[in-house]
Amino acid sequence: MAFVFRRAAATNFRRYSTAAPPSAPGTSSKTGLYIGVTSVLGLAAAYYYMQDTPAPATPKVPLTSALDKDNFVDLKLKKIEPYNHNTAKFTFELPPNTASLLPVAACVVIKTAPGKEDPDHPPLLDAKGKPYVRPYTPISPSDHPEEITFLIKKYDTGKVTPYLHAMKPGQTIGIKGPFPKTPYQENQYEHIGMIAGGSGLTPMYQIIQHALSLPNDKTKITFLFSNVSEADILMRETLDAWAQKHPDRLKIVYALDKGSDKWDGPTGYVTKEMVQKYLPAPSDKVQILICGPPGQVKSVAGAKDGMKQGELGGVLKELGYTQEQVFKF
After folding, report:
1. Is the dihedral of CA 268, 269, 275, 279 positive or negative?
2. What is the pLDDT of the chain when averaged over all its residues?
3. Coil, strand, or helix at residue 323?
4. 315: Cβ contacts below 8 Å, ≥ 6 apart
5. In whole angstroms, what is the distance from residue 232 CA to residue 229 CA?
6. Is 80 exposed, middle or buried (CB count within 10 Å of its CB: 0-12, 13-18, 19+)?
7. Model confidence over 56-72: pLDDT tens digits?
8. Could you tell me if 252 and 240 are in contact, meaning their C-beta atoms sit under 8 angstroms apart?
9. Are 229 and 258 in contact (CB under 8 A)?
10. Least packed by Cβ within 10 Å: which of 15, 99, 220, 285?
11. Up-side HSE of residue 201: CA atoms within 13 Å toward CB?
12. Where are the alpha helices (DSSP H) in 123-258?
């Protein structure tokens, strides 16, 4: 376009700077000059308009889910980012124009067997020769394109987490889902109380992240998060940033099994007194969510019955919460 403009401009300037064009009867030479200059200015304006006007935006391709609730999909490990002494972030690649698109709250299951044979990454099998399958909740947003990230704590006495922590970028793992848990609906409750221990953080993190992204949601959330020590508190910097940005909606209470001399928060296991002090009282406008080690869940809310909720028990039953007001992950 620039080349065409320069040629056209040069031609017109040569024509009208050296000699006036023949005048038509009743037309002065000044009129011809005016027309020529106008033509040049018109070309210049068109040129700059075309240069400054952005090209039409290419329509975004709608994201589709990379997951399958009925079949395992092999996903390649993109990177591992150590978080603390026993926990790391695992980011897996998703195909172009896809995302996990998990409903909130929901999890996936991971199978300890890659889809293709890899001598450096053989499958981990149980006594029956079958791979282990474990549920995990991603911490990446549901609509995050082309990646899915998990926060996974390594348990040295476990089977699956040491296997996952031994993975290297480029290796694959089987993932299936989503498996919905309790659906989050904005403004369904006035106040949600959360109780989590250790890596039981992840479904709470998923819900908080989603809830705070909804501009019309006014649901208040109080999160009682228990850990062994301060070094074990996962995603603390993000949780604190969210609480600071949304002080009217989010409150985080950290509890430690054994705090240092400088620790001024609650210590010990989650007790009746802690729940009474920090979490919303029983009400039809309140929901209590809990996720943590089986012992903690049993003590606070009663044991789960396999994949089923099981009867409500423990601290929450003593305080008057009902079965309908409590959900155990």
Report:
1. positive
2. 86
3. helix
4. 270, 271, 272, 275, 299, 300, 301
5. 5
6. middle
7. 444 466 899 999 999 99
8. yes
9. yes
10. 285
11. 23
12. 160-165, 201-212, 236-245
Enumerate the H helices of 53-82 as residue ranges: none
Bin 158: left if φ > 0, else alpha if -120 < ψ < 50, else beta: beta
Q: Distance between CA atoms of 49 and 218, rounded to whole angstroms?
A: 46
> Which two three-digit tokens encode residue 13?
């300037």
Residues of the chain with pLDDT under 70: 1-61
Place of tokens 């028990």: 313
- Tell me how far apart the alpha carbons of residues 291 and 279 are, in angstroms, rounded to a whole number: 15
Q: What is the pLDDT of residue 102?
A: 97
What are the DSSP E strand ranges found in the chain?
64-65, 73-82, 87-93, 98-99, 106-111, 133-136, 147-153, 172-180, 191-197, 220-227, 250-256, 286-291, 326-328
| Residues sharing a CB contact under 8 Å with residue 99, sequence separation 6 or more, in sequence order | 63, 64, 65, 66, 142, 143, 144, 145, 146, 148
The pLDDT of residue 116 is 80
Task: Give the span between the Cα atoms of 316 and 288, in whole angstroms.
Answer: 9
Taking the C-alpha atoms of 69, 137, 62 and 146 in order, what is their torsion angle to the nearest 10 degrees? Answer: -110
Report the alpha-carbon distance of residue 209 to residue 107 in Å, rounded.
15
| Cα separations in angstroms, 97 against 144, 149, 252, 322 | 10, 17, 35, 43
DSSP string covering 7-48: HHHHHHHHHHHH-PPPPPTT--HHHHHHHHHHHHHHHHHHHH
Instruction: Quote the tokens at residue 75.
Output: 């996903």
User: Rounded to an integer, what distance in angstroms lies between the CA atom of residue 40 and that of residue 17?
Assistant: 13
Going by their DSSP bridges, the two strands 172-180 and 73-82 should be labelled as antiparallel
Cα–Cα distance measured from residue 139 to residue 135, given in angstroms and rounded to the nearest whole number = 13
Task: Say if CB 273 and CB 312 are below 8 A apart.
Answer: no
Is this model's pTM higher than 0.70 or not? yes
Structure tokens at 33: 């000059």
Q: Which two tokens stand for residue 85?
A: 């002494």
